[in-house]
Amino acid sequence: QKEVEQNSGPLSVPEGAIASLNCTYSDRGSQSFFWYRQYSGKSPELIMSIYSNGDKEDGRFTAQLNKASQYVSLLIRDSQPSDSATYLCAARSTSGTYKYIFGTGTRLKVLA
Amino acid sequence: DGGITQSPKYLFRKEGQNVTLSCEQNLNHDAMYWYRQDPGQGLRLIYYSQIVNDFQKGDIAEGYSVSREKKESFPLTVTSAQKNPTAFYLCASKETVQQPQHFGDGTRLSIL
Q: Is the pLDDT of residue B2 over 80?
């Protein structure tokens, strides 16, 4: 069974700090990775997509991918209380090109 | 506005009753998905469809049924065979193989 694993948290960081969220995946053939933010009671919202090794930056968010280590991370700079949410990591499965595998999410709390 | 519309937002099911959750998208996306999310859990795939008139079972299809008669519509029926239907149901769609999924606002289903 292909898996995506995340620490459930909560991860607590002070306002203005860098939050680092991590994710590992078991399917070595996975090519596409996504980070979603989900506020309590709401649906997931896409934050970042990453397809190749290295870093990808978008505003305060940086996604990092290391395929050799099967590791994806999301850094949030200058964390704000409004960033408090659950962050879901997802990988596109190679067992079916249209299937995605989601982690259970990491709950982030940014303390004012 | 382009998007994914799920209805209703809240739904109650009586014992022995089938209920249908609606998902409509006007994004011209080929692929559509249904997920179930239980409290504190990740997303579990129920069914997905890559093209009209074709769909595949996901990881937890038992007790559910779908149809894909039109590109923009992918309704999910929760049958009486699904003994524990209380959950948050999310519909998603995507444009191409590489692209990320985008989600509707979800339907919260409870048992009366």
A: no
